[in-house]
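User: Teach me something about this protein's shape.
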Amino acid sequence: MSTVLSEQQSEQPSEDGRRKARVEGGTVTWACNPGFPPAAIFPFTPRERIGIRNLYEFQVLMFRPLYWLGCEGRPEVNPDLSLAYPPEWSEDGLSVTVTLKPWQWSNGEPICADNVMFWVNMMAVKGDRLGYYVPGYFPDNLSSYEKVAEDKVRFTFDEVYSKTWVEMNQLSLITPMPKAWDRTASGPARASYDVADIPAVYDYLVAQNGEWTVEANHFRGGWAESPVWSVVNGPWRLKSYTVDGVVTFVPNDKYSGPNKPHLDEFRQVQNDTDELMYERLLAGPDAPDGIQIGYLPFGMGLTDDGEDPLADSYRLVPQDVFVVRYMPFNFDNDSTAARIYKHTYVRQALQMCLDQDRAIREIYHGNAYRMDGPVPPSPANPHVSPKQRKDPMPFDVDAARELLEAHGWDTSTLPARCVQPGDVAGCSGDGVDIGDEMSFTIRYVEGKAALTRLLEMYREDAAKAGIELKLEPVYGSVMVAEDHSPDVPSKRLWEINTWNGGWSFYGHLTGEMLFRTGGGSNFGDYSDPKADELIDRTVHSDDPEAMYAYQDYIAAQVPTIWSPGFPNRMFEVAKNLQGIEPINPYGLINPEDWYYVEK
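Assistant: First, the predicted structure itself:
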């Protein structure tokens, strides 16, 4: 519930055109998605903890990236909120110099070239533990990187790359790290200057974060008081983190950026299910346990005519961001199921059994769109290929069944059985034996009503083609930690999973992190030499044909099951809370811009 503590006021327009006084101060309570409390404060985050919840709604409030993406709702670099001035390129297009702004950390130290070198040194040594790292790309594609002044770093690349891609997908990966983090359990280190110190410093910082995949991580309760994590350069600092996942931020009074917080506190609270979320919304933003920003769960609340039953207390704000929705296959798996779905025709049959159009109508009430490949069609952008716009792979259960039968499967039973093994035309393919069954398990995030309905519908339609889908609900944070970690036994056991989403882009809509061999967020460990070649073309050139060729190939290969795209959340925002819009197209939030007006 909001509490006004001071009254520095200015006139602001309301929805009906009348002027309402801005009120400085107060608290905003934000409701998180079920199953995903913040689980990583160290911004050098591995694949098993990477995602919007940890990065864009938690870490970046305290630790800013070198370049901030999203400017007044547009998909571009925001020069005002970035830590550095625009990059300066050499004439040959190989070298770029980055100059830091004269901003500071909360402990008074300047944000400097050493902080950038610290991060890049860590990527050079521990890149395989960063969810954004892609072998062969940054920093592997650097001939050199060096501090050239206290506020300048120069990067020299091994080839000429797209300047758009370098700024938005390479330099934006850098989150400068303060000298306070350059230490080990034994004391201060020199990782900013000497990569030999990186392993011990990294181990120390991970220890201060707490084990990545342990849900009962007792370190979280001490993050706010930590001499490491309390040194921030963003507009917010952590006041507290409770064992049940309630996060409280307060303004960083040493923040150097242009937008100082208007609020006194920003709280993030957990909800176990969509149903509980909806109950809290029905109680209203001024209830004793009220929330000022929640989300309207898909499949709940909206009438058939699209009317919002919460409109008296909230306004509906779709969070439409660049996100590709999908369910990855686990290619790092030796099971019978994996040997079956490693064949492209099987994945195509699975894709043909997902009725996206019906789901958009019946589950998402029209607040969604088809996702047919690796480039999201919304927000509107010019990068979606003509083929994906006009001729995507259709929903066609009969065609799926015929495709399986043409490859040696008897679909008259459920699950279908292999009756013609072999690696020649008309047979099931290498690794599939006679009697093998077309049966797959989908692990999915529990507590999401729309996702559950989508998967139940999918299971019903797939069965008509002889494909058995077994659904296994799992607590969200546990599922991604287990299934996306390279270090736990379950990594090799899951078959298909979905965390109610996919990948939210931070930068140009290329696919190196998701589908290139070894990509840090290539959660299913997909690997295809032709896909690698096509992805490489997109990062070397801004030619739209390169983007089209890449996405058309990936769409047809179905390395993941493409599922309906929809806004990250349908935000319900208290009517007297302003500054939320326009929505950042990359999913970042700026609560420092939010403020109350008089009711």
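Now, about its shape. Confidence is low (pLDDT under 50) at residues 1-11. Residues 95 and 156 are 4 Å apart (CA to CA). If you'd like, I can walk through any region in more detail.
User: That's plenty for now, thanks!
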